Amino acid sequence: VAPLSKSAVEDLRESAGRATSILYLGDNAGEIVFDRLLIEQLPRQKVTYVVRGSPVINDATMSDALATGMTDLVEVIDNGSDAPGTILETCSAAFRRRFQSADLVIAKGQGNYETLSEVNKSIYFLLKVKCPVIARHIGCDVDDLMVLRRP
Fold it and tell me: Are 139 and 1 in contact (CB under 8 A)?
């Protein structure tokens, strides 16, 4: 467990440099601009950005990726699902294949943490902890910004 710190960010940068393919799971539409800023710091040729298959709550969709120019920066795919978070069983077979084959997954948001934290995969979770249950699970405080690597 590492709060948003220089060493946690450096660990993520080093892992991204070693990876041959990076799957970046977006979160909400309002944060896609910040996602873009982070992706610009990564080896972009390795990155595929993932949006929801259709609108759910305020999650990013393909139209948001187009509007922000994300599609001009990296490959963008959708996960085939309208569920909050990333529930692999509800995602398309094409997305699940990409998920399994990615060397590194970066998953934004608490919803992705809630749905993927028990998956046996190298995942960096970037999130703001919003509730006491998740804070206890992670071992941090509510409102902490986290860079959390699993496993």
Answer: yes
Angle (nearest 5°) at CA 23 between 17 and 28: 120
Positive or negative CA dihedral for 89, 19, 9, 33?
A: negative
DSSP string, 65-129: HHHHTHHHHSEEEE-S--SSS--GGGS-HHHHHHHHH-SEEEEESHHHHHHHTTSSS-EEEEEE-
Residue 151: per-residue pLDDT: 78
Please state the separation of Cα 38 from the chain's center in Å. 11
Indicate if the pLDDT at residue 2 is higher than 60.
no
Q: Give CA–CA dist 122/119, Å, rounded.
A: 9
CA angle at residue 40 from 38 to 43, to 5 degrees?
A: 105
Task: Read off the pLDDT of residues 74-129 as tens digits, 9 standing for 90 and up.
Answer: 999 999 999 999 999 999 999 999 999 999 999 999 999 999 999 999 999 999 99
Ramachandran angles phi, psi of 148, nearest 5° = -125, 125
